[in-house]
Amino acid sequence: MRLVLYAAVAVAGFLGASLLVFWLAVRPPRLVVALTPKDVGLVVEDVTITTDDGLRLAAWLVPRPGAPAVVLLHGYPADKADMLPIAAGLASRFTVLLLDQRYFGRSEGRLTTLGFKERSDLKRAVDFLAARGLGPVGVFGFSLGGAVALLAAAEDPRIRAVVAYSPFADLAMLGRDLYAWLWLLKYPLVGLTRVWSRIFVGHDITRPAPVDAAARLAIPVLLIASREDEQIPFAHAERLRQALAGNPRAEFLFTAGERHGELPPDFAARVARFFLLCVR
């Protein structure tokens, strides 16, 4: 009887730990980036994007009439201000939209769905640009933003090109990477977080995976990753490269030495050249 009790306590404890892991993943402490448009010489228009489920997402628009548009998506758990250095490098040639993804920055939302609903949010941002007569559209995404860009581009033909910097290939795979120290227990832990997502979000938020979306893309894609990235293991870039192998318009920039979010030399200029060639 005592063994049964101990087993029940252990199972209950593991269930509780898995719920905590899920909750911390979808409601992380938000990082506020101490940078303003004025700091990088930009004048922005505050705009709002409304999502399919009625949330209001905060965004900055840097319009350039007649120019193609680029949407910038920040990483987890930052906000749109983190994209200002990239915006400064693009604004002379593109209309630029910097978006606070749901839950982050000044946007509404009780949690992040780590790409699942964010891909539809990106489509609504493209709708916003189209309503303003702005386009065609390219998307630059960092980390979570890169995963969102790949997911949305596979579903929305209005997205003409994607630059994805350090995206994860598969959220379940990333979970197993993060909890590799648990050895075999990492599998039920990640499996249970997928169960919790069905309960609290209504869907398994790990599906579709960015790697599956990438395999369907025929548009220009520039995948950027560092072999020294300490948050998104380089194995994710390798899986995405394999998925993009059948896309003759895919390009790859793999570097050594940069940590997660560090920009390689001449980064903004490289991104601008790519979009100038591909977004027309």
What do you see in this structure?
The relative contact order is 0.14. With 280 residues, the protein is α/β, with parallel strands linked by helices. It is globular, with a radius of gyration of 19 Å. The protein has helices spanning 2-26, 84-90, 118-131, 144-153, 171-178, 186-200, 210-214, 234-243, 267-278, and strands spanning 45-50, 56-62, 69-73, 95-99, 137-142, 159-165, 221-226, 250-255. The chain folds into two domains: 1-30 and 172-205, no CATH class; 33-170 and 208-278, 3-Layer(aba) Sandwich (Rossmann fold). It has nine helices and eight strands. The chain has an eight-stranded mixed β-sheet, with helices on both faces.
Query: Percent of residues in beta strands?
Result: 15-25%
Query: How would you sum up the global shape?
Result: globular
Low-confidence stretches: none
By CATH, the architecture of the largest domain is named 3-Layer(aba) Sandwich
Largest sheet: 8 strands, mixed
CATH topology of the largest domain: Rossmann fold
Helix content: 25-40%
In brief:
The chain is α/β, with parallel strands linked by helices and 280 residues long. Helices cover 38% and strands 17% of the residues. The chain is globular and about 75 Å long.
Keywords:
9 helices; 8-stranded mixed β-sheet; 280 residues; Rossmann fold; 8 strands; 17% strand; alpha/beta
SSE layout and pairings?
Layout: H1 2-26, E1 45-50, E2 56-62, E3 69-73, H2 84-90, E4 95-99, H3 118-131, E5 137-142, H4 144-153, E6 159-165, H5 171-178, H6 186-200, H7 210-214, E7 221-226, H8 234-243, E8 250-255, H9 267-278
